[in-house]
């Protein structure tokens, strides 16, 4: 193992990034949303692939997340890739607009 002082400082810096920069969030909302999405699919609860909820479910499927720490499956804490949450948020806005347009149509 490389014990050079710079390597040890680098390892410490990487640990600092992991400890302080991984966006830890509660895992429950992710689990609930994922479970409900699967239940919608299982129940065939949408009309067809053009149903606005399909795009929202696809965006949820693209959210990159995992339990934190990674070796604790079912942990109350999760980490997420922020850009994928942003994409999910944009999909939610698009879904709400699509529903509003459907409701406003004669």
Could you please describe the fold and organization of this structure?
It is a single chain. This protein is mainly α. It is built from four helices and three strands. It has one domain. The chain has a three-stranded antiparallel sheet.
What composes the largest sheet?
A: 3 strands, antiparallel
- In whole angstroms, the N-to-C terminal distance is 71 Å
* Radius of gyration from the alpha-carbon trace, in angstroms: 20 Å
Count of discrete alpha- or pi-helical segments spanning 4 or more residues: 4
Strand order of the largest sheet: 1-3-2
Mean pLDDT score: 86
Which segments are poorly predicted (pLDDT under 50) over 5 or more consecutive residues? none
Number of domains: 1
Give the total of beta strands.
3
- How much of the sequence lies in strands comes to 5-15%
N-to-C series of helices and strands: HEHHEEH
Question: Which shape, going by the Cα principal axes?
Answer: elongated
**What class, by secondary structure content?**
mainly alpha
Q: What is the helical fraction, as a range of percent?
A: 55-70%
């Amino acid at each position: 193992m490389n014990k050079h002082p710079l390597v040890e400082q680098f390892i410490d810096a990487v640990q600092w990034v992991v400890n302080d920069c991984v966006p830890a969030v509660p895992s429950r909302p992710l689990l609930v949303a994922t479970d409900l999405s699967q239940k919608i699919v299982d129940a065939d609860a949408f009309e067809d692939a053009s149903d606005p909820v399909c795009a929202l479910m696809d965006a949820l499927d693209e959210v990159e997340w995992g339990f934190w720490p990674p070796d604790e499956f079912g942990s109350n804490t999760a980490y997420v890739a922020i850009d994928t949450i942003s994409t999910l948020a944009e999909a939610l806005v698009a879904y709400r607009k699509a529903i509003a347009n459907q409701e406003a149509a004669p």
